[in-house]
Amino acid sequence: MAGDNQKSSLRKDIDENLKRVYEDALKEDVPDRFKLLLEQLKAKESKK
């Protein structure tokens, strides 16, 4: 049973860490180069 508790605790730790990394990624700004590429794509699409 102790092994099950350790697995459960490990899964909980992994879940918390993944959520934290995901939340941090959502807070990051979109890089300027990516914004420029999106603008260029929109310009090409509007010319069609």
UniProtKB/TrEMBL annotation:
It holds the Pfam family NepR. Residues 11-45 form the Anti-sigma factor NepR domain. It comes from the Bacteria. InterPro entries: NepR (IPR041649). This is Transcriptional regulator. It comes from Pseudotabrizicola sediminis. The lineage of its organism: Bacteria, Pseudomonadati, Pseudomonadota, Alphaproteobacteria, Rhodobacterales.
